[in-house]
TrEMBL record:
<dbReference type="InterPro" id="IPR000183">
    <property type="entry name" value="Orn/DAP/Arg_de-COase"/>
</dbReference>
<feature type="binding site">
    <location>
        <position position="291"/>
    </location>
    <ligand>
        <name>substrate</name>
    </ligand>
</feature>
<dbReference type="GO" id="GO:0008836">
    <property type="term" value="F:diaminopimelate decarboxylase activity"/>
</dbReference>
<feature type="modified residue" description="N6-(pyridoxal phosphate)lysine">
    <location>
        <position position="64"/>
    </location>
</feature>
<feature type="binding site">
    <location>
        <position position="328"/>
    </location>
    <ligand>
        <name>substrate</name>
    </ligand>
</feature>
<keyword id="KW-0028">Amino-acid biosynthesis</keyword>
<dbReference type="GO" id="GO:0030170">
    <property type="term" value="F:pyridoxal phosphate binding"/>
</dbReference>
<feature type="binding site">
    <location>
        <position position="388"/>
    </location>
    <ligand>
        <name>substrate</name>
    </ligand>
</feature>
<keyword id="KW-0663">Pyridoxal phosphate</keyword>
<feature type="binding site">
    <location>
        <begin position="288"/>
        <end position="291"/>
    </location>
    <ligand>
        <name>pyridoxal 5'-phosphate</name>
    </ligand>
</feature>
<dbReference type="InterPro" id="IPR002986">
    <property type="entry name" value="DAP_deCOOHase_LysA"/>
</dbReference>
<feature type="active site" description="Proton donor">
    <location>
        <position position="359"/>
    </location>
</feature>
<protein>
    <recommendedName>
        <fullName>Diaminopimelate decarboxylase</fullName>
        <ecNumber>4.1.1.20</ecNumber>
    </recommendedName>
</protein>
<feature type="binding site">
    <location>
        <position position="388"/>
    </location>
    <ligand>
        <name>pyridoxal 5'-phosphate</name>
    </ligand>
</feature>
<keyword id="KW-0457">Lysine biosynthesis</keyword>
<dbReference type="InterPro" id="IPR009006">
    <property type="entry name" value="Ala_racemase/Decarboxylase_C"/>
</dbReference>
<keyword id="KW-0210">Decarboxylase</keyword>
Amino acid sequence: MISSELTSENGHLMIGGVDSVELASKYQTPLVVYDVEEIRNQIRRFKNSFENNNLKYQVSYASKAFATIAIYQVLKQEDVHTDVVSGGELYTALKAGFPAEKISFHGNNKSEEELEMAVDNHVGVIILDNFYEIDLLEKILETKDSKIKVMLRLTPGISAHTHKYDQTGQVDSKFGFDVGSGQATKALQKVLSNKRMELIGIHAHIGSQIFGVEGFVMLVKKMFEIAADWKNNFDYVPNVINLGGGFGISYNDQDEAIRLDVFIKKIAETVKQQAKEKNMNIPEIWIEPGRSIVGPAGFSLYTIGSRKDVPGLTSYVNVDGGMGDNIRPALYQAKYEAVVANKMNDKLTQDVHISGKYCESGDILIDHQKLPDTKSGDILAVLDAGAYGYSMASNYNRNPRPAVVFAENGHDKLVVERESYEDLIKLDRNYI
């Protein structure tokens, strides 16, 4: 939802102290704009919540939500970790000057080339996902006469209440070592026997866009149960328990997100209780928020073009972007809200479909949205669009991907250039 402080005197949407209508004119649309101060504030809320609960912690930004040189530079300024899931994300973070020792490398099928890049650049920790990866990393470390810190990603059998494609902690998942079947214990033994790998902890991720803290409480208890078993049987105690991410945000009125301080307080209480019951030292707790850091800070700006009105049916208001810059509504049936950035004070007079320009009937950004009267040339702003929009963007229909702008303290800066038509064909080669 938009607060009154984000509306200027002339009724325009303000982002980071900058007029969004002026941004649309200056950089053209579609355009992704981030309120950088909101990103910083959200990171600090996470950190303050942990510190208020007297826990050792690390906030590790989940790069897949949005990965560019500029965001890694902001993360570096805010002194947090980051996790990457590909060679491309790792390369971008390193090019941004992000410290390698604060990088975790995730993924369920890391290539030999990607693992070599991680080892050569001395990343902070590799999250091991399967036995193939253990063997591959073992070979690389032997060849390079190197050592590295690792964690084991576990599938603890806990399902979050979320979209089925966002659930990653349940037993039937492509991620991690299954606990119930004994795979996790076998992985533990295999890693502990390798002197080139230092096992610093265990990791699990139960899903995304989670609104209830109950799943995290269950996860903490399960992770301590595993840790206590491994302490008794293998004399191994994890220094780190990584609880993954998945903290939900409010995209619309139906989403009821829990405040971060409430989330962290409950997690901290459970960690302390479990450590006491299991007679264990309190480990360092890691979390991996991505969406909850950049999602609310991002806005997608579009220019309204054509319109389709059929008597008795909901009208279609068409914009100059769509599923190519935000696939989530088509892929996950994700629900967003939007405003007309140049008519923030106008009364809402119509209910319309917000549809994109792509040649797909499913290219509907918002199924039903109340708007004021609109005309061609108005600027539509989709709210809370900072996560998984640009990072999942494509060139479908040979449309260029949008530009990205950072706005902070009344200043704006282009941080990702808009692709050109020439960019679209630069990798093509003639056949004839």
